[in-house]
Amino acid sequence: MGFSTTHLIIFLVIIVVIFGTKKLRNMGSDLGGAVKGFKDGMKDGSDKSADTSAAVPPAQVGAASTAAKETIDVEAKTKA
Predict the structure, then answer these.
(1) Dist. CA 17–CA 22, nearest whole Å
(2) Domain, as residue range, for 58
(3) What stretches of the chain show up as alpha helix (H) in DSSP?
(4) S-S: 3 plus which of 7, 23, 41, 68, CB 3.0-4.6 Å?
(5) What's the mean pLDDT in 17-32?
(6) Section 10-31 average pLDDT
(7) Is 20 left (phi over 0), alpha (psi -120 to 50) or beta?
């Protein structure tokens, strides 16, 4: 009851006719870039969490939280 090879070929031909090759190529490159960015973000996130836990001594944890409260969101100022 599954799809045969001829069903898949007909389906792909219909998709190419509807969307066109240029649009499909752009969608493929966008999807590939998103996946690459996600993988890089996952690598950076795990590296940063390991680095920050080792780099900040326990005495400075309270100082870091007060510094975070004083930060200014630049994008929020430009949107208003």
Answers:
(1) 11
(2) 5-79
(3) 5-19, 21-55, 61-69, 74-79
(4) 7
(5) 90
(6) 90
(7) left
